[in-house]
């Protein structure tokens, strides 16, 4: 695979382990690094290399096989000192892209100062998504894609049913763009059993929305919230 990227994951807790597993399943080359022998043994089947080393020790990390790494992922966050030191050392090693987890704004600020290209707020983001979902149950999921734009899945409001996208004119009325429509269909198999199938429809102006449809939209949070009002 000429485009296969190499990832180095530092810290093999629940988050780091899952990152290793998914990257490996998607075809990435994964170097897993931790100071815990048990975690290293556990991750071996999901990694190209599993290295037992203290990532906060710059001299020890010099022996780690990081020369071909495209992305370094500092998965530990609870140990702020370890995450900051590891990020700084990776920057000194010349890793081109470094993603580090943070648990506070100050933590994130320091991580960026020492070399993190991108900072993740896993717990904070999940908390916000849960709270938003509880407040707006018709909005199934939201994923921030920029500072002002969000990708969201929205259950079609009752007033939209049996209307075309052209008539609804969501771009001008709500300043949001519909990029796809998800629709469930129930088919009967050869044994007479119902089988549900999800259809993903590429929207056109003449697309008629049906009850139970889910529209995938891009827009600002406030504009998306107005849909359910």
Q: How would you characterize the largest beta sheet?
A: 6 strands, parallel
Structural class comes to alpha/beta
CATH topological fold name of the largest domain: Rossmann fold
The first-level CATH class name of the largest domain: Alpha Beta
Strand order of the largest sheet: 3-2-1-4-5-6
CATH homologous superfamily annotation of the largest domain: NAD(P)-binding Rossmann-like Domain
Strand tally, please? 11
CATH architecture label of the largest domain = 3-Layer(aba) Sandwich
- Helix fraction bin: 25-40%
Molecular shape: elongated
- Kindly give the count of domains: 2
Strand content: 25-35%
Report on the architecture of this protein:
Helix 4 (80-93) runs parallel beside helix 5 (105-114). The strands form 2 sheets. The protein has a 6-stranded parallel beta sheet with strand order 3-2-1-4-5-6, with helices on both faces. Strands 7-8-11-9-10 form a 5-stranded antiparallel beta sheet. It has helices at 14-25, 37-43, 58-61, 80-93, 105-114, 122-135, 165-168, 170-174, 221-227, and strands spanning 6-10, 29-34, 49-52, 71-74, 97-101, 118-120, 139-144, 150-155, 177-188, 194-201, 214-219. The chain has 2 domains: 6-120, NAD(P)-binding Rossmann-like Domain (Rossmann fold); 125-227, Alpha-Beta Plaits, CATH 3.30.70. By secondary structure, it is an alpha/beta fold.
């Amino acid at each position: 695979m000429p485009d296969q990227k190499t990832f180095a994951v530092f810290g093999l807790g629940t988050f780091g382990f899952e990152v290793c597993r998914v990257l490996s399943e998607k075809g990435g080359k994964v170097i897993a690094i931790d100071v815990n022998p048990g975690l290293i043994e556990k991750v071996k089947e999901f990694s190209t290399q599993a290295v037992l080393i203290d990532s906060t020790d710059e001299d020890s990390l010099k022996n780690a096989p990081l020369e071909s790494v495209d992305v370094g992922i500092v998965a530990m966050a609870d140990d702020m000192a370890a995450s900051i030191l590891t990020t700084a050392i990776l920057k000194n090693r010349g890793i081109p892209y470094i993603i580090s987890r943070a648990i506070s704004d100050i933590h994130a600020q320091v991580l960026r100062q020492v070399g993190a290209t991108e900072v993740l707020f896993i717990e904070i983001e999940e908390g916000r998504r849960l709270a938003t979902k509880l407040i707006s149950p018709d909005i199934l999921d939201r994923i921030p894609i920029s500072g002002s734009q969000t990708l969201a899945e929205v259950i079609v409001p009752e007033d939209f049913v049996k209307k075309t996208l052209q008539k609804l004119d969501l771009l001008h009325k709500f300043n949001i763009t519909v990029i796809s429509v998800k629709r469930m269909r129930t088919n009967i198999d050869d044994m007479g059993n119902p089988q549900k199938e999800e259809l993903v429809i590429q929207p056109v102006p003449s697309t008629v929305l049906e009850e139970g449809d889910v529209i995938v939209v891009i827009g600002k949070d406030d504009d998306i919230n107005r849909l359910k009002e």
